[in-house]
Amino acid sequence: MTQPGDKSISPFTRRVLNVIDQIPAGRVMSYGAIGDRVGGSARQVGHVMTTCAEETHWHRVVYADGTPASCHAGRALDLLRAEATPMRGNRVDMARAQWQGAPDHSGVDG
């Protein structure tokens, strides 16, 4: 099982998994927003998700239009609804549910 602290995964994968692990219940981030945050692309984040999804809150990562992943036999919708994620039909209401991420304090003295 791949974990964010696993030394066998790349630094990029570790950064992606760390961001996903911070997304609170009821909130989501898009593949592209995660990519922007960690210095990669939506496609690269998607690749990480195909290899490590089961070890993280995969259902909290959605397309930019709010469409959840279609894999896992539609389980994403059930999980998102169980967390009271704001929805519009079968899509996440991105205006209300998109999480911007925890502040990045890496450059702050202190």
Automatic annotation (TrEMBL):
<dbReference type="InterPro" id="IPR052520">
    <property type="entry name" value="ATL_DNA_repair"/>
</dbReference>
<keyword id="KW-0227">DNA damage</keyword>
<dbReference type="InterPro" id="IPR014048">
    <property type="entry name" value="MethylDNA_cys_MeTrfase_DNA-bd"/>
</dbReference>
<keyword id="KW-0489">Methyltransferase</keyword>
<dbReference type="GO" id="GO:0032259">
    <property type="term" value="P:methylation"/>
</dbReference>
<dbReference type="GO" id="GO:0006281">
    <property type="term" value="P:DNA repair"/>
</dbReference>
<keyword id="KW-0808">Transferase</keyword>
<protein>
    <submittedName>
        <fullName>Predicted methylated DNA-protein cysteine methyltransferase</fullName>
    </submittedName>
</protein>
<dbReference type="Pfam" id="PF01035">
    <property type="entry name" value="DNA_binding_1"/>
</dbReference>
<dbReference type="GO" id="GO:0008168">
    <property type="term" value="F:methyltransferase activity"/>
</dbReference>
<dbReference type="InterPro" id="IPR036217">
    <property type="entry name" value="MethylDNA_cys_MeTrfase_DNAb"/>
</dbReference>
<feature type="domain" description="Methylated-DNA-[protein]-cysteine S-methyltransferase DNA binding">
    <location>
        <begin position="11"/>
        <end position="83"/>
    </location>
</feature>
<dbReference type="InterPro" id="IPR036388">
    <property type="entry name" value="WH-like_DNA-bd_sf"/>
</dbReference>
